[in-house]
Amino acid sequence: MRAALPVLPYRNPVLLSSMQEVVDVLRKKKKNRVMLVTGPTIHGKGLTKPLEDLLQVNGIECVVFNKTTANPTVANVEMARELYLQNDCQAIIAFGGGSPMDCAKALGARIARPD
């Protein structure tokens, strides 16, 4: 496996330094409806509100999935997937720690490869 790593099609991540850069990336990619994946505590404390407001001001609709559980289950990911598809979302933003990140990654995989 080590010999194959240099030739695999990995992309280097780009670090964003502000929420405005998230908007800039979404505009560049022509995405105007996103799903924000987070947990109930983070969302309940209003920590996602500045990002949600910024997206709205910039004409980007934000659908919030705030039901991420600790160590997200298949059922949890499928709930997020249903909401994503029902709202014709075009991108995913994960907001929070490991569980929202894991849920968003699994959601992305299910959207990209439904079967």
What does this structure look like?
By secondary structure, the chain is of the alpha/beta class. It has five helices and three strands; from the N terminus they run αβααβαβα. Helix 4 (74-86) crosses helix 5. The longest helix has 15 residues, at 98-112. The two termini are 26 Å apart. 23% of the residues are buried.
- The proportion of residues in beta strands is 5-15%
Termini separation comes to 26 Å
Helix/strand order, N-terminal first? HEHHEHEH
Average predicted local confidence, pLDDT: 93
| Sheet with the most strands: spatial strand order | 2-1-3
- Helicity range: 40-55%
Q: Report on the biggest sheet.
A: 3 strands, parallel
Unreliable segments of 5+ consecutive residues: none
What structural category arises from helix and sheet content?
Answer: alpha/beta
Gross morphology is: globular
Over the alpha carbons, how many angstroms does the gyration radius reach?
15 Å
Please, how many helices? 5
Number of strands: 3
Q: Can you give me a brief rundown of this structure?
A:
By secondary structure, the chain is of the alpha/beta class. It is built from five helices and three strands. The protein has helices at 19-28, 40-44, 49-57, 74-86, 98-112, and strands at residues 33-37, 61-65, 91-94.
